[in-house]
User: Fold AAA family ATPase, CDC48 subfamily from Pyrobaculum neutrophilum.
Amino acid sequence: AEMTHGYTGADLAALAKEAAMAALRKAMNRGMINVELDVIPQEVLNKLKVGMSDFQEAMKYVHPTVLREVIIEVPEVRWDDIGGYETIKQELREIVEWPMKYKHYFDELGVEPPKGILLFGPPGVGKTLFAKAVATESGANFIAVRGPELLSKWVGESEKAIREVFKRARMAAPCVIFFDEIDSIAPARGSRLGDSGVTDRMVNQLLAEMDGIGTLKNVVVMAATNRPDILDPALLRPGRFDRVIYVPPPDLKARVEILKVHTKRIKLGDDVNLEELAKRTEGYTGADLAAVVREAAMLALRETIKERSVKAKPVSAKHFEEALKRIPPSLTPEDIRRYEEMAKRVRRAI
Ligand code: ADP
Assistant:
C-alpha cells in the first residue's frame, strides 16, 4: 500500500492482475506448470503464490494514472549548448544554480533566492533549453510539464496532476519543474468562459504548491510563456514567479553564436561565413537557425549520396543559400516590436 501512492482503484486492480500474471510466468518458466495444457488445473493455481517481487515486476508495467505523464528526465543541456544570451545565463546561474549548489552559503547569509522564474519570449528562442541547462548544471533532475497536455490528458483531474507533479519533484529533488506554455493553465482567474473553473482550480493549486515550498529548497519552479499579458497576476506576486526574464529573438551576436553551436560537429566548406549568415538572418529564432543548418547539411548529404562521392562533401555556402530560401524567419519585424512592447509592459507591471 505504501508503494502505490497515487494509484487509483482501477490501477490497483490492474496491478494485482499483472502481479498474478508475473507469478504465473515465473511458475511456467520454472517448469512448475505444464505449458502444453490449455487450462491450468485449479489445484495448481491454488498453490501459486504471488510474492512481493511479482508486485514489483508488475509495477514496471502498471503506473498510476495520474503519474503516467510525469517523466523525470536527467537533462544533458550545458550552458555551452546555448548560443548567445550571456546576461541571461549569468542571471540564471546566480538565481537558480547557485542556491541549489551552494545552499549552505545562502542559508548562512540569509539570502533568499527567487522562488519561481518565468521566462517569456517568442517560441523557439531557447526557453526550454535554459530550463534544461539550469537543471544539468546544478546536477538536478528535470520534469517538463506542457500546459495544454496537462489540461487535455488529465481532464477532471488537473489539480491532482499539479499536486502529483510537485510531489514527484520533491521525491526526485534536487529537481527543476518546468511548466511550458503556462498561460494555458494559468490565465487570469475568471477571465475565460466555459472551462474557466478548471483553470481557476489549477491556478489555485499551483499557487498553493508554490507557497508550500520554502525559498531555500531544492525544488525550483520555472515556467515559460509567449503571452505573459494574459497570465493570472497572482502568479507574479512575491513568493511566486518573482523573477521574470524576457528572452528576446537573438540579436546579431547571438545568431553568430547559435550558428556556431549548431555547426560545431559539421564539416563546413571554406566559403561558409557564419558572421555573414548571421547578418542575413534577422527574425530567425534559435530554432529557425538550427533548422537552416540541418537543411543545409541534408542538401550536402543528398549531393554526396547522389554523386556517390568517396568522401562526404562539406556543407558549403550554396547549401546555406538554398536552405535560407526554404526556411523563412518565423518572426516578422512587427512580431519583434510586439514582443518588445510586451516586455516593457511586463517590466512596468512587476
Ligand atoms: P522555446 O522553449 O523558447 O520554444 P526551445 O528551447 O524549445 O525554444 O528551442 C528549440 C530548439 O531551437 C532547441 O532545441 C535548439 O536546437 C534551438 N535553439 C533555440 N535557441 C537556441 C540557442 N540560443 N542556442 C542554441 N540552440 C537554440
Q: What stands out?
A: The CA atoms of residues 68 and 221 lie 20 Å apart. The mean pLDDT is 87. The longest helix spans residues 9-29. The first strand starts at residue 72 and ends at 73.
